[in-house]
Design brief:
The protein has 223 residues and is α/β, with parallel strands linked by helices. It contains eight helices and six strands.
Amino acid sequence: MAPPQKALKAACFDLDGTLIDTGPLHTEAERLALASLGIPEPAPDHPVTFGAGVMPGMQMLADHYGLPSAQHVLDAYLPAWASVFKSGLVPMPGADEVLRLLQAAAVPLALVTSGESEYVDTVLARFGWNSLFTHRVTLESVKRLKPDPEPYLLAAQLLGVEPRSCAGFEDSASGLEALRAAGAYSIIVRPDHADRDELAGADMAISGLDRFGEPDVARLFGR
């Protein structure tokens, strides 16, 4: 957990899996979608689509199960997702507290997600987070999604800081790759980070946002 050479000036947060616990919801929506398409249960080697972006993930499923197209899968997935999303969405432990802690320390915040802006608006409104983020980078904001660095480079530009002055909170290998390629300070937030070789290159790793507190803010941001 190497500290940055200079105090960081801003923070960026991934949404799904980092701030909100959508992993289980996504898995259930995929299961329901595949069942509606004639596939009773996911295969043992079911592809990991979480964090890949909507259409890339749908394409992975189409390719893996021999389905006609990504759009064909998406048409089945969307109603399944709407059903599980309505009743099951919860924030990750410590998410609200960390966001408000950083806001109180006057650290500018940006949301960097592969989700669509309408989805982002719904989530932020549900948890009262609209006012916490100075900027949002969504699916519509960029030409290339994570693991490309474009989303984080744009976030730094919007925040008015150099990428190396940003901390990025992520839970996936694609997010980590994007942060590292952008030159940002990478923080992996995942309970099993120590068991995942693909996450070993992070500057800092914590098991959950509830493990990030005032001492971390002071050490990283000098606040």
